[in-house]
Design a protein that fits this description.
Elements lengths: L16 E12 L9 H22 L7 E4 L3 E7 L6 H4 L1 H14 L9 E13 L2 E3 L1 H10 L2 H8 L5 E6 H6 L13 E7 L2 E10 L15 H4 L5
Parallel strand pairs: 4-6
Antiparallel strand pairs: 1-3, 1-4, 2-3, 4-5, 6-8, 7-8
Length: 226
């Protein structure tokens, strides 16, 4: 809907266009540190996008099909509902940690990078200006919570994965490959949001026993539902 100057929309003219999406919010730890000048920040941003695209591509999440909004020191990503949510906890953390380590090996200290990545899912509203919705707001409340910032700040981890209570209960704890036992629960209080989240820290790639896609023998599991 396009409005003329001085024209205000009435309630009847606004219709919500909604869709269920997996919500991924990413933030660069310490992006505005005084040790980083503008050139360093641009290189870190390029490194973040390279690491995200590299990790998404390597685990089969279609980067080009995801909706993306740049947030300066991070990015909002919305994945279609038909992308298996388990990919975001079974494979993406390991791949992203590896990409971050690769980036950090070839950059000076002021351009080394660590990330916080929050995961949630829900209904998202689309309009002419972008996207909004309580699911997006909730994801950023988790990402920016002091408890989450403090957790990675006192660690040497390159990546903190933050799952919402919903994402942990419905996705993470049901997967053999998400390493659910590596997540710890934290209480979140950020603006209007009071909730529980689950955090996993990754310092390096972890060893996977076998490929999740081929791990269930048909003779034991029976028919596999695609």
């Amino acid at each position: 809907m396009e409005l003329r100057t001085g024209e205000a929309p009435s309630l009847e003219e606004i219709t919500l266009i909604t869709a269920h999406r997996t919500v991924i919010a990413v933030d660069i730890v310490g992006f505005g540190a005084h040790s980083r000048n503008n050139i360093n920040q641009v290189r870190v941003r390029h490194g973040m996008y390279w690491a995200m695209q590299e990790a998404f591509g390597s685990v089969g999440i279609p980067w080009d099909d995801c909706y993306r909004e740049d947030r300066g020191d991070g990015v909002l990503i919305l994945a279609h509902a038909d992308v298996p949510k388990a990919l975001f906890v079974d494979r993406l953390p390991n791949a992203l940690a590896g990409a971050l380590i690769t980036h950090n090996h070839v950059h000076p200290p002021e351009e080394k990078m660590r990330l916080r990545l929050a995961l949630h899912a829900g209904e998202v509203n689309y309009d002419d200006h972008g996207v909004t919705g309580s699911a997006i707001t909730h994801t950023f409340r988790l990402l920016e919570a002091k408890a989450v910032e403090d957790t990675i700040a006192v660690s040497s981890a390159v990546l903190a994965v933050v799952g919402s209570a919903w994402f942990f209960d419905e996705v993470i704890r049901h997967s053999e490959w998400s390493q659910a036992k590596a997540y710890r629960s934290v209480e979140i209080s950020n603006k209007e949001t009071t909730t529980r989240a689950w955090i996993r820290l990754l310092k390096r790639r972890t060893t996977v026993r076998r490929d999740p896609a081929t791990s269930i023998p048909k003779s034991k599991a029976g028919r596999v539902i695609p």
